[in-house]
Design brief:
Layout: E1 5-10, E2 13-18, E3 26-30, H1 54-68, E4 86-88, E5 108-111, E6 118-122, E7 126-132, E8 137-143, H2 145-150, H3 152-164, E9 172-175, E10 185-186, H4 188-198, E11 206-209, E12 212-215, H5 217-227, E13 235-237, E14 262-267
Parallel strand pairs: 4-5, 9-13
Antiparallel strand pairs: 1-2, 2-3, 3-14, 5-8, 6-14, 7-8, 7-9, 10-12, 11-12
Helix pairs in contact: 3-5
Length: 269
């Protein structure tokens, strides 16, 4: 599958834009480049709970929103806890991403409201953006290995179907940069979780190397999407690895946790 993403720059900010949406929705997988943070957070850190200076992070958000042309002050995003929880977002949640009083945990959100941006964070985990141009609804999902095992990508499709009458066959999906199958080395408990979730379908995406296993989380999340009814031809999967491309992306493993975080945004104009 071709990469299907275009690297864009504006105002010093750099991001990946999925070609599959054909410009019909504002969608961006941010890189770590172009912000004002310093030290281990240099430079476009978008994590408000990692110890970085709050004013610097807010300025990073302002720059990112201005670059990709979304009203970032209305961003809907939650505390991610590797769950399978997907929230239906509407106007009253606008801006909750910046409210320290919001303690709700969720790893995905969907909406059918225009001008309401959704966001998820990642630094090796799998960011997924969803858009149905016919039902006019969108979604953003964060899938670590636990979220992958619990099927959060499929949960988002189900929520879009149930709440907005979205036909899964009309949904377009973009799976952004994440740790690749060659770099995500883990113990047997993670491999077992994938095998329990996917059955024989997981075999081609798990390989054993001594006592360790390597797992392709991007491919497994694409499998969840196709099982939920999204056509394979409607899924774009980035070939960029966050651990291999630490010049562009934050990687939790590559920095031993000393890092910022990038975000993925989607907003219907």
């Amino acid at each position: 599958m071709p990469d299907g993403f275009t690297l864009k720059r504006r105002g010093g900010i750099t991001w990946l834009e999925p070609d599959i949406f054909e410009g019909r929705v504002r969608a961006a997988f941010m890189t770590r480049l172009g912000g004002v943070s310093h030290g281990i957070y240099e430079s476009l850190n978008l994590g408000l709970r990692l110890g970085d200076d709050r004013e610097s992070v807010l300025e990073n958000y302002r720059l990112a929103g201005e670059a990709v042309d979304i009203d970032i002050k209305r961003l809907v995003a939650f505390r991610q806890a590797h769950t399978d929880i997907v929230v239906t977002a509407s106007g009253p949640l606008a801006g909750c991403a910046f409210d320290p009083e919001v303690t709700a945990e969720a790893d995905g959100a969907v909406t059918n409201e225009t001008g309401l941006p959704l966001g998820v964070y990642a630094a090796d985990c799998v960011p997924i953006l969803l858009y149905n141009p016919k039902a006019r609804c969108a979604g953003a999902v964060h899938a670590g290995w636990r979220g992958t095992a619990s099927g959060i990508a499929a949960a988002a499709i189900k929520r879009m179907t149930g709440d907005f009458g979205s036909n899964p066959g009309d949904i377009l999906a973009a799976i952004g940069p994440r740790i690749c199958g060659g770099c995500f080395e883990t113990g047997p408990e993670v491999a077992r979780a994938m095998e329990e979730a996917f059955g024989l379908g997981a075999e081609g995406h798990i390989s054993q190397h001594g006592e360790k296993h390597r797992i392709d989380l991007g491919a497994l999340n694409a499998m969840w999407l196709t099982r939920a009814g999204v056509p394979k031809s409607s899924i774009a999967v980035s070939d960029m690895c966050t651990m291999e491309r630490r010049d562009l992306f934050w990687s939790h493993r590559g920095t031993h946790g000393e890092r910022g975080v990038q975000a993925a945004f989607i907003c219907m104009p």
